Amino acid sequence: MSKPEVLMTGPYPTWDMEDLDSRYVIHRLWESKDRDAFLAEHADSVRAIATRGELGASADLMKRLPKLEIVSCYGVGTDAIDLRFARENGIHVTNTPDVLTEDVADLGMALLLAAARQIPAGDAHVRDGQWVKGNMHLTTRVCGKRVGVVGMGRIGTAFARRAAAFDCTLSYFARTPKPDLPYAFVGDLVALARQSDFLVVTLAGGEGTRGIVSGEVIDALGPDGIFVNISRGTTVDEAALLDALEQGRIRGAGLDVFLNEPAIDPRFARLQNTVLQPHHGSGTVETRQAMGKLVRDNLAAHFSGAPLLTPVA
Ligand code: 8YV
User: Fold this and answer.
1) Residue 281 C-alpha to ligand 1 middle, in angstroms?
2) Which of 215, 145, 201, 208 shows the shortest CA–CA distance to 173?
3) Which residues form a coiled coil (predicted)?
């Protein structure tokens, strides 16, 4: 039997590519010189898209593939996939929940610690020979502080567990209160920011959360506040965040996600009070191996007629 044909929107690590290449005919969209011609050439044979969280699958892309049966996403966030189009056209969608939760939460904690304790500045102080001239300036304590978590799903919960181990007091904003959790629900984001020393965003991206962290929320965090984002750049009014950071209206930020990744606003690079990461929350070998395996297992299940492991509702 001929191998099913899969369109990939961007590369995966070698260990996944080798396995995918052995099971499927892989069409590498990112290598094509003429995207339209490439899609037209394979339109009648592609049955699956293997994509990544940030690359997604637009309605426009799916429309061009009339034999498309499944979109398998290497990432938990499906905000870049047109889920409505997929649903209306009977196209299955899978993602990679759970396997990345702990690593993303780890990076959230690392960003909070790095921004508050100014780890990059300390590193530069040692490296650049400033230490022999004098001690580094003092920084901000993390343990015991008030942390507001925006979004209390899998990643928010894992982050809160870590912050609780640092003796922080936790409150959170979510669509609905989670009575099983020992943290205070605050249904108003401005109020949450006002009562928090640190605000940590773990929300899902997409239209429902676009710009939810507004300029007003950022101002409510105040001049001693530190902002951390491990969700999507879209959840924040980025222009307002940049203004607040530049003007010292908040103390600092630890950011893994931005608008227009990877060509982010150059204003970020000029800030001294931020710690920046290249959307790398899930970027460990362990997690990426688990994510790739889940994508491959979902595709294998689909093509063998077995139930999907992690279908997106
Ligand atoms: C990945 C992500 O960085 O899970 C997500 O939604 O954004 C990340 O884990 C991305 O999908 C890998 O390309």
Assistant:
1) 8
2) 201
3) none
